[in-house]
């Protein structure tokens, strides 16, 4: 029986790399992948005047293993005019 809930070796955190970044409507989005799942993260855009001492917190918008679903979600954010939004 296959183990579909595999964890990284030794419980080490997975390393995600950024596939793309996009800013729209005062929000910054990052599209990331770790070899297993895709993630879309969102955070508020901070101007130089408001620069806080710590990095703004990111919110997980999507975590998806299916590449087609992940890229569709990313394209809805990046190019909403193509989807009538």
- The radius of gyration computed from the alpha-carbon positions, rounded to a whole number of angstroms, is 15 Å
Oligomer state equals single chain
Order of helices and strands: EEEEH
Count of DSSP-assigned helices:
1
- How would you describe the shape? flat
Largest sheet: 4 strands, antiparallel
Give the end-to-end Cα distance, rounded to a whole number of Å. Answer: 43 Å
Q: How many strand elements?
A: 4
What would you call the structural class?
Answer: alpha+beta
Which percent bin holds the helix content?
10-25%
Low-confidence stretches: 1-8
Explain the layout of strands and helices.
Layout: E1 17-24, E2 27-33, E3 38-44, E4 59-64, H1 67-78
List keywords for this structure.
four-stranded antiparallel sheet; flat
Characterize the structure shown.
- It contains one helix and four strands, in the order E-E-E-E-H.
- The protein has one domain.
- Strands 1-2-3-4 form a four-stranded antiparallel β-sheet, covered by helices on one side.
- With 85 residues, it is an alpha+beta fold.
